[in-house]
Specification:
- The N and C termini lie close together (10 Å).
- 76% of the residues lie in helices and 0% in strands.
- The chain is mostly helical.
- The protein contains eleven helices and no strands.
- It has one domain.
- The structure holds fe (ii) ion (2 copies).
- One fe (ii) ion binds next to helix 5 and helix 9.
- InterPro entries: Hemerythrin-like.
Length: 232
């Protein structure tokens, strides 16, 4: 099903969102390539880290040569959308496991002002800015602020939290692939815009995401001219 979705959407993204196309089309395939995934299905951690890699590709593309204001605007919107979906899915699936197995302090650190909350606030501001209204420099500066926090948060997750989590008794390939399936499912009802004041812990975050996602989706249909990029 993921392959079919990727194939169906990659054509739509080809012209306007080159990095987004790579994200949508290649991500599930790359996920399947991990040797440890062959029998059990993709690990949630490999899926999350693949998302991180794609955020960095999008941001590199944003800062690359030959980018005009319109292209930066579209990439900025794509980044905001992808990061919002990723964060919502982590908060539904991964962080409750972190809370259960590593404790509240570890989960609250990832959710807090060094992590998701800071990123959401900055992307919320960026979401109400535009290249046309605020100028390319101001728009880029706001996104840069958000990406700086995001990069730090990604390092936190990948170099500290995930290795600790994977070393715990009871955390095996079956659990990681089970969480991977849940992570993918969560993307299907995830919000696509940052909501810093919405609940970020189960069960209220699941309810809030499910109720808010259709409105975000309608706004994104308008923003992306009827073809919003699909990040799952
Ligand atoms: Fe995160
Ligand atoms: Fe993450």
């Amino acid at each position: 099903m993921l392959r079919a979705l990727s194939q169906r959407t990659s054509g739509l993204l080809k012209q306007a969102y080159p990095a987004s196309q790579v994200f949508a089309a290649a991500s599930p395939r790359i996920r399947r390539m991990a040797a440890s995934d062959v029998q059990t299905g993709p690990s949630v951690i490999s899926m999350i880290n693949e998302d991180h890699r794609q955020f960095k590709l999008l941001w590199d593309e944003y800062n690359g040569p030959n980018m005009n204001g319109e292209m930066k605007q579209k990439l900025g919107w794509s980044l905001i959308r992808a990061i919002a979906m990723h964060s919502a899915a982590e908060e539904e699936v991964m962080y409750p496991e972190i809370r259960k197995r590593l404790g509240s302090e570890a989960a609250d650190h990832l959710l807090g002002d060094d992590g998701h909350q800071a990123i959401k606030k900055l992307l919320f501001e960026a979401n109400y800015m535009s290249v046309e209204k605020n100028g390319e420099a101001a728009y880029t500066a706001k996104l840069s602020e958000a990406m700086k926090v995001l990069y730090h948060h990604i390092e936190d997750e990948e170099t500290r939290t995930w290795p600790h989590f994977e070393s715990l008794p009871g955390v095996d390939a079956d659990l990681l692939s089970h969480l991977g399936r849940k992570f993918d499912a969560a993307k299907h009802h995830a919000v696509t815009r940052p909501h810093p004041w919405a609940p970020n812990k189960p069960p209220l975050n699941v309810l809030a995401n499910t109720m808010t996602a259709p409105l975000d989706g309608a706004l994104d249909m308008w923003r992306f001219g009827g073809n919003p990029p699909r990040y799952y």
